[in-house]
Amino acid sequence: MMRGPSFSRRDFLARSGGGFGMIALASMLAEQGVLGQNTRARNPLTPRAPHNEAKAHRIIFLFMSGGPSHLELFDPKPDLQRLHGQPLPASFGPVATRRNVERNRLLATRRTFRRHGQAGTEVSDLLPNVAQCVDDICVLRGCRGDSVTHPESVYLMNTGSILMGRASLGSWVAYGLGTESQNMPAFVVLPDPGGWVKGGAPAWGNGYLPAAYQGTVLSGGAAPIRYLNPPAGVTQNQQRRTLDLVNQLNQEHLRLRHNDDELAARIAAYELAFRMQMHAPEVVDTSRETQATRRLYGLERPETAEFGLRCLLARRMVERGVRFVQVYCGDTGGWDGHTEVDANHARLCAQSDLPIAGLLRDLKSRGLLDSTLVVWGGEFGRTPMTEGTTGRDHNPHGFTMWLAGGGVKGGQTIGETDAVGLRAAEDIAHVHDIHATILHLLGVDHERLTYRHNGRDERLTDVSGTVIERALS
């Protein structure tokens, strides 16, 4: 019997060294997201493990379009009340505003603030229902942005840049984590039916990320998803066979174009559209919700019914595995209180206060709040100086947002603005810091979540961003 060549241990290691190197290289490439791209191309929304342990698994972002005034809602300023009608003291120095508003007189608020919850968080009388939930809320009073205009500030809050064309927060989350549901989009947007946010669709766009990660726009009302029902006379079986044939042809086309993300996204979209026709009607059908739940969201009140329905849809979606839901409150003008800021905010708080509190209570009662991060805020705040006689102008230098659920330590207030609420002064949280914190709660390291574009590893937080450790439970 012939025997094969014998090898010493030294020969074996020498000849196997290349193999060990390839194993190490494969591990490194996998960590960087290079390996497995074919799998991602076949299904871009395949669930993926986070970098670290996640406290939150899904997000509901309640976006107050137009710029809500922190001075009327969450940030009482006794000095502003005392200095009403006087010019901004020279000690505050120059400040960038529109229309030379810094020269105008200081405007006191008409609102009354009271302490609520075990921590005594101060909340305006415009928000009596949210005030009852403050023990679950972490208020960030020292927020700061980069632009005094709406579109740029909307883009910054949503994409991390004042420039159009960057990938949105929801797209980054879908790209980094995929989705828990293969029957619904990973990223859903519910705009205000009165008009889209200033800046429009780029606020939820995918930017340079593959098209599969852009937000899917749904409306409220009886038919939130357009073209959901199949054409008359077409059976489910016919539609399935048609889709299978189209998918087979597309897959053959894709084999010759391994890196065509647009084609891969389109193939995945066809399949998702079919699955949505099977499953989405149940998701958006609120008719079986109890009367108690309907009252919780204010569906039986004319002033809260519309926004309340969209908040309820948000809960139903995250309950069924949608990763990121963004709900806009405020039409094209929204919270933009250039004139009669008090009346403007009273109207919008009447629409949103009860549904937002209902959402928090509903998530908590169902055991979902611990794993669902709720974010509240707009693109900026308002100035302490008047615009006209009763309005306030845009203020990105200091404003308020809040976080709840999903690993957040509630019942606390972090950060401060100065004596009149003009600038963030303590524990300042730039938008990049807020984004870094949101990703951290999802178990994602904002410095490692990158996408190669034009020779640069792009990321949501650009080259900055620090996690707000005090906000974490």
Could you walk me through the main structural features you see in this protein, from its secondary elements to its overall organization?
- The chain has 473 residues and is of the alpha/beta class.
- It has a single domain (64-225, 281-471), classed as 3-Layer(aba) Sandwich (Alkaline Phosphatase, subunit A).
- 34% of the residues lie in helices and 16% in strands.
- The strands form five sheets. Strands 1, 4, 5, 6, 7, 8, 11, 12 and 15 form a nine-stranded mixed sheet that branches.
- A hairpin with a 2-residue loop joins strand 16 and strand 17.
Quickly describe the structure:
The chain has helices at 9-31, 37-42, 70-73, 78-82, 128-131, 150-159, 169-177, 236-255, 261-284, 291-296, 305-319, 341-365, 431-441; strands at 58-64, 113-116, 121-124, 137-144, 187-190, 216-217, 324-329, 372-377, 381-387, 391-395, 399-404, 412-414, 416-417, 424-426, 429-430, 451-453, 456-458.
